[in-house]
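Table S2 (text version). Query chain:
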Amino acid sequence: MPSGTASENVGTEDVLRAQYYALLSRLLVQSPDADTLEMLGALGADDSDFGKALGALAQVASQSTPETAIEEFTKLFYGFGAGGEVMPYESLYLTGLMYDKPLAALRSDLAEFGIENSKENNEPEDHAAYILEIMHHLIMDQARNPVGVERQGEFFHTHIASWMEKLFEDLETSDSSVLYAPIGTIGRLFVRIESEAFEMAA
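Corresponding structure-token output:
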């Protein structure tokens, strides 16, 4: 994942947006541990679709354990010898192939932003978790690497809106999804909310 420090000039609303990007990134790259499950179990809810999804996640998380979470995560993303049910890669979703043109385009954008892959894992950069973390970075690292809203929107539409809503829909409906079903709902709704926000800002 990219490294960077948050800018003191980032507004409260943008900090909240960035936190959702970071949370979704975290949940797509690693199963939630006990502390994360406790945090998810304390999420508040309201009558909006997004708030209801948060409430559903809180309820399921409060009934989950790290052991059940890692078993579900493994079934969803890795499988037991036969591959996972959901493969969270931009190239695969957009072209049906791994390591294809979307990955090359993403790497070009990362070079433009001066972001280097830390090589902490063996996943290609177009893994959904990495892309979501990039958006977190673009929002929060305005002091050292200012990227305007217009350019953020271009990155979002190219590398997130183009496919991640479908990814999160697949998580909602996957046979193995219990904890990850409401996570899928939250991700799908969040992508839609961000799409509308960037359109309004254009």
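Notes on Table S2: Residues 12-201 form a domain with the TorD-like fold (CATH 1.10.3480.10). The first helix runs from residue 12 to 29.
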